[in-house]
Amino acid sequence: MPTSRPSVPPSTWVRPETCAAMDTFFHGFGFTAREDLDVLAAWVLEGSTAHREEPRAALSLARARMEQWFSKALGQELEGSLLARGRAAFVLCDGARLGARALTREPLSQDFARMLRAAVPVPAPVQVASVMPEQQLVLWPFGEVLRRWWRGAQADVSISG
Amino acid sequence: MHAHSFSPESAGPRRACVLGLAAASTVLGTWEMHRLLSVRGTTAPEVVLVALFTLCFGWIALSFWTAVAGFLQLAVGGRMPGLRWPTAEEESTRLTSRTSVVMPIHNEDPAAVFANVQATYESVAATGHLESFDFYVLSDSTRPEAWVAEELAWADLCRRVGGQGRIFYRRRTDNTGKKAGNLQDFCERWGRHYDFTVVLDADSLMDGRTLVKMARLMELNPRTGIIQAPPLCVGRSTLFARLQQFAGRVYGPVVAAGAAAWQLGESNYWGHNAIIRTEAFIEHCGLPVLPGQQPFGGHILSHDFVEAALMRRAGYTVWLVPELGGSFEQPPPNLLAYAQRDRRWCQGNLQHLSLVMAGGLHPISRGHFLMGVMSYVASPLWLLFLLAGLVAALHDGWLSLTHLPEQAAGLGFDSDGALRLFSVSMGMLFAPKVLGLTLALARGQDAVRMGGRARLVASVLVESVLASLLAPVMMLFQSHFVFGTLLGYRVTWSSQQREDADLPWSEAARRHAVHTAFGVALAVGAFLLSPGLLAWLSPVVAGLLLSIPLSVFTARASLGLWAERMGLFLMPEETEPPAVLSRAREVTEEHAVAPVADAVDHVLTDARAHALHLALLESQPGLETAPVALASARQKLLGGVTEPLSAPEKTAVLLDAGTLAEARERRLSRALS
Predict the structure, then answer these.
(1) Distance in angstroms (rounded) separating the CA atoms of residues B360 and A140
(2) Rounded (10°) CA dihedral A95, A98, A99, A102
(3) How far apart, in Å, do the first and last CA atoms of chain A sit?
(4) Using 50, 70 and 90 to split pLDDT, how confident is the model at B501?
(5) What φ, ψ does residue A46 adopt, rounded to 5°?
(6) Which residues of A touch B288 (CB under 8 A)?
(7) What is the pLDDT of residue B206?
(8) With 80 as the cut, is the pLDDT of residue B515 above it?
(9) What count of CB pairs under 8 Å joins A to B?
(10) Closest CA relative to residue B238, chosen from B559, B571, B568
């Protein structure tokens, strides 16, 4: 029967499939060392009962934990998914090289937070929607005069019409 | 709005001079040609010959007088009238406007693209005006591998320069309207953030000081719609490219200054290395779709000329400003790549024929359309002129197996007059080279930086010989493109070859077989008619017979670099490179981008690529993926089918965050278990 004891590797107290799900999740942040993955799984599952549940519940917990961490670290309201953009920033500035402490350390290093904020991908600024109206060109004005004379009051049309 | 309200008062006399002299020269040349041909009456083939001569000679005459105007402008010095330039005091103030620098790309080498963006970005930062500029890489890439590599290169660039929030990357999933559509999409989403937009090409590079100067000119001249900074070709090593670069550096300024001198505020826009007034562009330059089928109908391919004409129609001026400097691009590396680019441009320029008479356009804008058409139609006209000359001579009895040219005098033919007219034509053709060389020699410092006066003269002579040999090949290429376009040849839009790779003999033989065969036929035909005629045609025949080896050898970087070591075809920008050029080269070498072999595999296995790609996907909600391609891709990726993904399947997967996350999770689980 697993017990809630974060000081020992989670593999000893978390269901194997939940443990595998946690490993996969944190691989996405660039963590590959066994000890880091254990610490991070414990960091997510500590004090919760999710480990007694399905891996899906543990993953939800991990996502929520990371979103909370990113909102604290980035200190800003990001458009779109905080987790996706935060994770990209974390991976782009190679946060995993600092080990699990990059996430578990309290308070967070200001230098690292600054680096993280600078790495948040901003592919484009806020859009200001406008329309480039298609220009009307009368390709053959003399022919147009004739057309109007012949067909009377037919409305102008865009040449692409 | 009055069409001429912005041209300075001297515009009329300048145009009258250049266009009047070109017209007068054409009349005189035509009259002389007619005199030469009509000593025994005028036959139908001779009428055709004179008509073709008039068009060809008129084109040469316009280029000649434009070059003369440019020479005078550069020799006398001083700025072109019309634009208000900043005073020293104004130059020291902050820019009050916001400018976007946009680079549309399509399946390009990301290392070179982002190195140029970085060098330009750093160059602007060095001016202290970075806060007035934002940078956009606007991708239309269709290859999944190019797409993923661009994302990674963009993220790397932002990390290197701290550019997140100032350097942006956007990829379109729908390539409607190609490059013009790409720019339109930018304008409709983000254009209103900016007063001005600098449009670059994928191989463009611009000095920050030039960008600041262009923005300031736009601020000071509120009715200016577009300022074009003519780009200088740099950065290639193949012999062909070095010839282009050298020619552009020595003769280009004369031609550009000449065009600017008489076109003034009705100059043209070349599609890149130019700044545009964004709001005016949005309001007045939305391109229409032309009625009918290709080649004349459909989306406008060569958008730049049309945008310049529309901008001018709306009452904004368009200026070509050669003295800006600091504007660079790369030439095609070899003759075939050059021809490939021409094929695309040819259809675009011919399409402008249907716009020449469009209502409301400025007469000079119509002239730009016609000049664009002539830059390609001149080739088939020259070809037809050569053939018509043979036909007319045979028809009139000047040439036959019994009448050799030297006997023509006995028939009343004015051989001296013909030689004189030929000499005048060749003189006018080569005048821009001579004028450019004269200016370079006169400017001692320039000559020194081009290898010294002796090497400079030698370079011009060798370049002229090689250009003369290549000209007949281009004549046949362009004639083929023009006839093909008129007969409904469809142009596909593919990225240009931008690498200095050697050209295989087999490829050259395949592309130039017809040219060689035509050369053989021309040589045999001419010899049978008269050996003397073959001598007259020898420059054309030689170029065609040598087309295969010429194409292969000029494509070699080793020969280009050898010429450089010999001090031939040197440019000041090579001997003393501007900082922005050196920086671009450094960045390209230091931060080579690892190629992405398989886009989906890369995104699934590389944590960085995966995280970045998903973040970018989520920042663009509403992207649609092809359901059929996605379903089959999912079957292959998640259903254990080992068959590789097709390109559409890869694209579908790369657009679906759910599938990517699921596939990566499965792969990792398999690897970890």
Answers:
(1) 11
(2) -70
(3) 74
(4) confident
(5) -55, 130
(6) 134-137, 158-160
(7) 97
(8) yes
(9) 156
(10) B559
The span from the CA of B361 to the CA of B318, in Å, is 13
Q: Where are the domains of chain B?
A: 599-672
Note the pLDDT tens digit of each residue in B14-24. 999 999 999 99
Q: Which residues contact B582 (CB under 8 A, 6 or more apart)?
A: none
Q: Which 8-state DSSP code applies to residue B99? A: E
**Residues of chain B with C-beta less than 8 angstroms from the C-beta of A24:** 665, 668-669, 672
B156 near B591, Cβ under 8 Å? Answer: yes
The amino acid that residue B508 corresponds to is: A
Tell me the C-alpha to C-alpha distance, in Å, between residue A148 and each of A143, B359, B601, B671: 9, 15, 61, 74
Residue B246 structure tokens: 């050298």
Which neighbouring-strand residues pair with B266? Answer: B318
**Alpha helix ranges (H) inside B352-488:** 363-396, 405-408, 415-442, 444-449, 453-486
Residue type, B429: L
Summarize pLDDT for A102-156 with one digit per residue, the tens.
898 888 888 899 999 999 999 999 999 899 999 988 888 877 777 766 665 554 4
Q: Hey, which residues 5-64 in chain A have their CB within 8 Å of chain B? A: 20, 23-24, 27-30
With the CA atoms of A36, A41, A47 and A51 taken in that order, what torsion angle do they form, in degrees rounded to the nearest 10? -160
- d(CA A105, nearest CA chain B) in Å: 23
Q: Are B252 and B511 in contact (CB under 8 A)?
A: no
Confidence of residue B417 (pLDDT cuts 50, 70, 90): confident
Count how many residues are written for chain B: 673
Q: Do B607 and A27 touch (CB under 8 A)?
A: yes
Give the confidence band of B621 by pLDDT, cuts at 50, 70, 90. confident
pLDDT for the residue B177 = 85
CB B320 within 8 A of CB B261: no
Characterize B485-520 residue by residue with b for buried, 16 or more Cβ atoms within 10 angstroms of its Cβ, and e for exposed. Answer: beeebebeeebbbbebebbeeebbeebbeebbebbe
Interface pTM, i.e. ipTM = 0.83
Cβ atoms of B117 and B103 within 8 Å: the answer is yes
